[in-house]
Amino acid sequence: MEHIAEKFEGATILVVDDEPFLLSILCARLSGFGARILTAENGQQALDHVKSEQIDAILTDIDMPVMTGLEFLSKIRELGYLTPVVILTGQGDHTNMLTALRLGASDFLDKPFDSAVVNEVMVKALRLGMASRTMEEKLASGGGEPSQISLDEFRRWKSAVVANAASAPLPKPKYGR
Amino acid sequence: MQNLMVLDTQKFWENFRELKHLVPSLMASFVKQCPGSLARIEAAISAGDAAALKSAAHAYKGVLLQIYAPRSGALAEDLERRGRTGSTEGAREIYDQLVVEIDLLLSAIQNLDHEKNAA
User: Fold this and answer.
1) Per the CB < 8 Å rule, is A115 touching B16?
2) What residue spans define the domains of chain B?
3) Which of A8, A52, A148, B90 has the most CB atoms around it within 10 Å of its CB?
4) Homologous superfamily of B9-118
5) What residues contact A107, with CB distance under 8 A and at least 6 apart?
6) Are A8 and A34 spatial neighbours (Cβ–Cβ below 8 Å)?
7) Mutation site, B16, B18, B33, interface A, largest A CB count within 10 A
8) What one-character DSSP code corresponds to residue B21?
């Protein structure tokens, strides 16, 4: 791909969009990560995937039939899934951006999406998703013993969380016309 | 709107360069879906269905802007905006312009092959 240096073998990305052409472009762009890619055409299909698969990062559109991207995000947070979710937003769509932030979205991609920005945003999301999964698996296998997680692992996870929080854009104020 | 390009080939190749090997199939897919996308917009206008117009135009706008077709993208955006107001008034004229622009866009896409080889 655009020479994506970092690979995420073993990771799973879920891409959600009701527009087949955009979905195919997104999947083509993400194929360079070496991750498994699952797709869904609406929030309900996406929710079904989340419930049945280990998903490490999600990229979703907002306007979709059956269940919108924001409804889907709200639902998975309600169910306790903390998977990083990147929202595809229309330019200047500050209302949806703010709503998504409040619902726990980890980042945004403005449409039309630039290839370099897609790479940057998804690398951060995948780092966070994979680091969180490693933490959870360690905790689960250790019966909750904190010593199962090394300091290095904890720092990597924390760094991924901070990187994601820092990259979420602030809405630009409207100065009115 | 005349200041806008039919197809911004510079931006197109900036963003599709790493997918160069897939461009023919992606563009074939775009060309194939155009009649259906236009038909959905036309049907909404004929039915006077503003919600359907908004939805169909919004979807097509996203596709057009993603392949860096700003002129037709702007027309689709205009149609979406009209649908959002709850009315299809004036949409027919914009739709007719969009059909003409899509024709120009399809010609521009055919020429992409030559530019791809030169890029």
Assistant:
1) yes
2) 9-118
3) A8
4) HPT domain (1.20.120.160)
5) A84, A86, A87, A121, A124, A125, A164, A167, A168
6) yes
7) B18
8) G
Residues on chain A touching B15 (C-beta within 8 angstroms): 114-115
pLDDT by residue, tens only, chain A of 177 residues: 445 567 898 999 999 999 999 999 999 999 989 999 999 999 999 999 999 999 999 999 998 989 999 999 999 999 989 899 999 987 777 888 888 988 999 999 988 888 889 999 999 999 999 888 887 777 777 655 555 667 777 777 777 776 665 555 544 444 333
Give the ipTM.
0.85
Secondary structure (3-state) at A57: strand
- Decide if A111 touches B, using CB distance below 8 A: yes
Distance from CA of A48 to the nearest CA of B (A): 24
Tell whether A1 is within 8 A of chain B (Cβ).
yes
What span, in angstroms and rounded, lies between the C-alpha atoms of A156 and A166? 15
Between chains, do A18 and B66 touch, taking CB under 8 Å as contact?
Answer: no
Specify the pTM. 0.83
Chain A residues 9-38 within an 8 A CB cutoff of chain B: 18-22, 24-25, 28-29, 32
